[in-house]
Amino acid sequence: MSMIGNFLQVSPEQLAALIADPSCIESFIYREDEDEEEDTSLEIDKAWHGIHYLLTGSAWEGEAPLADAVLGGTEIGDDFGYEPARYLTVEEVKVVAAALHEITPEQFRLRYSADQLSQNEIYPDIWNDSDGDPIEYLVAWYEDLRSYYIEAAANNNAMLKYLN
Predict the structure, then answer these.
(1) pTM of the prediction?
(2) What Pfam family is a match for this entry (predicted)?
(3) What is the pLDDT of residues 88-139, one digit of tens each?
């Protein structure tokens, strides 16, 4: 079983409704009537932990706003996978987007150390494998995540985040 990082842009009104009734979070995230063409979600595969580590230098903690990009935020609802979902408000999304905007993919790449990721037990444990190129894997997903936050900020959206 693998742990996949998921992000979902939500309107301020949708977030307010979920905060008012957190029992709806799971059905909101896994709603069946969603049109695939209107899907505003992003999944970053198993790269979530590596991205968090390269942004913060910490396996699970870190300084805001970069720590908020993947693992930070306010918990909402019950545990429905590996932990409860988390959210960022519109204002928090804008702060995270601005911070990510400052870290280009090239600068992100320079933060990579396979030995550091392995020593800190960053999921998934692929950093010293001879197959593939783990840095390219992380950079590609970082670029998607960075763009996603910038788009969410431009659209005045909040963000839900969860691992499943």
Answers:
(1) 0.94
(2) DUF1877
(3) 999 999 999 999 999 999 999 999 999 999 999 999 999 987 677 899 999 9
Cis peptide leading into 124, omega within 30 of 0? yes
How far lies 126's CA from each of 27, 73, 114, 115, 157, in Å?
33, 27, 9, 11, 34
pLDDT at 121: 96
Task: Characterize 132-146 residue by residue with b for buried, 16 or more Cβ atoms within 10 angstroms of its Cβ, and e for exposed.
Answer: eebbebbbebbebbb
DSSP letter string, 73-103:
SEEES--SSSS-EEEE-HHHHHHHHHHHHTS
Can you give the length of the chain in residues? 164
Residues 7, 142 contacting (CB under 8 angstroms): no
What pLDDT, on the 0 to 100 scale, is given for residue 38?
A: 64
